């Protein structure tokens, strides 16, 4: 196992058991069976390790949700696909979700809050896309209230499952939430969310989706990719970011080449957002 991944895996175990504050670097290194020097070769601090964990899992969850929603060809199934993928991802990464849920009841520093808001904004975009596809102008006045309700459903039901270790029938839960969301969409008429709040909700997603940011992420990943086709596809995608006449058809083909590599999920997601594919 790669040492950096080993540190992240063992740290996640400790954070889940004890929380961020109560876990020391010494405890992490003891759980890993490595020296403190080896730890600091991978991470400058415990805070940097925490941010790396949040990045790793939120990239997986957010990209899974977006890919499932965007590839759904039947509009009537969009809400089902969204809810099902969301709860399946939370279930798959339940150790991380439990840790994150526990820490949300404590004080996050500014960088952690910013990191949470960044990924939260991407999920907002997926939800708004679904609502626009399903209901269009019918919910123009209330769609941001619906956005908050959908996220509330996810948070509340996830908390029930994670805190009390309830058995999770994802299919039944998904169908129940699809029904509830449809009722709200069809019968809600009084909007509450203001224009100012809308701007706050939508603004953070665009902060880092730039050519320079995506190129830097590709540069970080490209040497870790062993498959030559995936590696070459990443290089071409990076080069194309700085061209004015990039072919979207070629870009889609290159994304197909890397879509099954877990290390490329977030890059694929950002490129789709960048080109609005």
TrEMBL record:
Keywords: DNA-binding, Repressor. Pfam families: TetR_N. Residues 1-61 form the HTH tetR-type domain. This is TetR/AcrR family transcriptional regulator. Signal peptide: none annotated. Transmembrane segments: none annotated. It comes from Peribacillus asahii. Residues 24-43 bind DNA. One of its GO terms (molecular function) is DNA binding. Coiled coil: none annotated.
């Amino acid at each position: 196992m790669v040492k950096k991944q080993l540190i992240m895996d063992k740290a996640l175990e400790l954070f889940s058991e004890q929380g961020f504050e109560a876990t020391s670097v010494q405890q992490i290194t003891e759980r890993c069976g490595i020296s403190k020097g080896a730890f600091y070769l991978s991470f400058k601090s415990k805070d940097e390790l925490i941010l790396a964990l949040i990045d790793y899992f939120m990239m997986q969850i957010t990209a899974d949700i977006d890919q499932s929603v965007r590839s759904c060809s039947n509009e009537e199934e969009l809400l089902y696909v969204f809810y099902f993928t969301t709860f399946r991802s939370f279930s798959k990464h339940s150790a991380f979700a439990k840790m994150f849920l526990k820490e949300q009841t404590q004080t996050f520093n500014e960088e952690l809050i910013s990191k949470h808001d960044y990924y939260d904004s991407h999920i907002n975009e997926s939800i708004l896309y679904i609502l626009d596809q399903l209901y269009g102008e019918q919910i123009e006045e209330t769609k941001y209230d619906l956005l908050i309700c959908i996220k509330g459903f996810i948070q509340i039901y996830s908390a029930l499952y994670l805190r009390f270790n309830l058995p999770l029938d994802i299919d039944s839960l998904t169908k129940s939430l699809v029904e509830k969301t449809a009722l709200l969409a069809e019968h809600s008429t009084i909007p509450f969310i203001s224009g100012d709040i809308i701007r706050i909700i939508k603004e953070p997603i665009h902060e880092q989706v730039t050519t320079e940011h995506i190129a830097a992420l590709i540069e970080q990943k490209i040497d870790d990719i062993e498959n030559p086709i995936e590696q070459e596809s990443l290089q071409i995608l990076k080069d194309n970011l700085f061209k004015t006449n990039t072919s979207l058809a070629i870009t889609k083909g290159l994304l197909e080449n890397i879509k099954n590599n877990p290390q490329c999920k977030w890059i694929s997601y950002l490129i789709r957002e960048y080109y609005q594919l």
